[in-house]
DNA sequence: TAGGCTTGTCAACAAGCGTTGGCCAACAGG
DNA sequence: CCTGTTGGCCAACGCTTGTTGACAAGCCTA
């Protein structure tokens, strides 16, 4: 998999592959899963270490503390660059679909959301994601630059509400929705929040 | 069992006033506050008891366990009966306003939301509130009886998303919104989810 | 082969948790 | 008065948590 562990060239090859990389990534994967399923407090270092089949003290050695582990495990990239390529009237629907993709691809967003609710650092992480990744996208579709933040916030409220009810609280009617239904219902909403004239 | 410590009339006077009622309600108030601010795990019995200026063991005596305390502290009544009195075209806006009222009147809804994210019993409590109090209201405004649950779920997603971003995660642009702005933006959304033809 | 990092195991620590039971003071009814 | 019930505090229990340090085995270089 890793091919050459690169003992020789260390200069431009990134941070020098270590023998423990397998353990590191096993811990990170287990951590993501536990944080997503249990939230911050109930995702214990001991449980994560057990999932990764490793000693809890190794988690501490590699990541310093539980906070450090969370910071290392949850680095979220929404990959929202291609929004300018869809027709302007379909931006809402495309964004809804994109978020559904991300939400179902892995558990990182669920982890962020769950942790953000009970942990201050988690909430700040989510605020940062919104500021650095959501607002800039809204900036490209939104007419009035003064309203960008507000409109992005409205979209976030709608999309995170969907995620909350569908993936976390699991309200039965929201869980039962098909992908196309979600796009058809929420697409126009997001579209309006982004582009409609201010009411 | 309980005997009759009541001084005078015990027949139709409810559950017989006790000498400890002041302590009981102090505990319940502190519990609501802590659950809303910290979520289930971090809202410790010891902290709640300290807020209520009482010994932790009394909390156990009165409410049996931490689960029992949560069940007793968070009994949520959305008071959603008067929806039939507003003009049918204004139902969405009225509902948004009503929820803002409830959310800002006390901290119970925030408590339910925060606990529902990390605690299974909390999630079931929220599902019950949705089933028993939200869906029936939608039933009265919604044309097609087969779609009532779906449409109620969509409204819940939008409204809980607002609450999540405004009162829990505190995204700055959402916190900054004025009440009229929220009603103007979300009202039409909720209205559409409830009454517009299925897309 | 010797010596220094790295990776891993094990046992323990202090702190905090929910929970329990015993004890004392204040009250109530006879 | 005495007696039983109630309200309250205190000290402790068993357990789990994040975190630490000592120590053995493995690898790499010299």
UniProtKB/TrEMBL annotation, chains A, B:
Compositional bias, Polar residues, is annotated for 1-12
Q: DNA-binding among the record's keywords?
A: yes
Q: Which residues bind DNA?
A: 44-63
Q: Where is this region: Disordered?
A: 1-23
* Keyword DNA-binding belongs to the record: yes
Q: Any idea which UniProt keywords this protein has?
A: DNA-binding
Question: HTH tetR-type domain location, by residue?
Answer: 21-81
Give the domain of life. Answer: Bacteria
The protein here is known as TetR family transcriptional regulator
Taxonomic source organism:
Streptomyces hyaluromycini
């Amino acid at each position: 998999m890793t091919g050459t562990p690169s003992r020789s060239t260390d200069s431009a090859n990134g941070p020098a592959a270590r023998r423990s990389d397998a353990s590191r990534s096993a811990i990170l994967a287990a951590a993501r899963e536990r944080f997503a399923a249990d939230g911050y407090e109930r995702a214990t270092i001991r449980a994560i270490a057990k999932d990764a089949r490793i000693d809890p003290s190794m988690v501490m050695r590699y990541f310093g503390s539980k906070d450090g582990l969370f910071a290392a495990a949850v680095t979220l990239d929404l990959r929202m660059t291609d929004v300018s390529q869809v027709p302007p009237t379909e931006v809402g629907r495309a964004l809804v679909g994109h978020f559904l993709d991300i939400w179902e691809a892995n558990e990182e967003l669920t982890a962020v959301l769950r942790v953000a609710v009970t942990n201050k650092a988690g909430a700040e992480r989510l605020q940062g994601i919104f500021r650095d990744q959501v607002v800039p996208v809204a900036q490209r579709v939104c007419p009035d630059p003064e309203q960008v933040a507000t409109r992005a916030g409205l979209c976030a409220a709608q999309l995170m509400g969907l995620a909350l009810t569908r993936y976390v609280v699991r309200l039965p009617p929201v869980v039962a929705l098909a992908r196309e239904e979600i796009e058809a219902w929420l697409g126009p909403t997001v579209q309006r929040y982004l582009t409609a004239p201010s009411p």
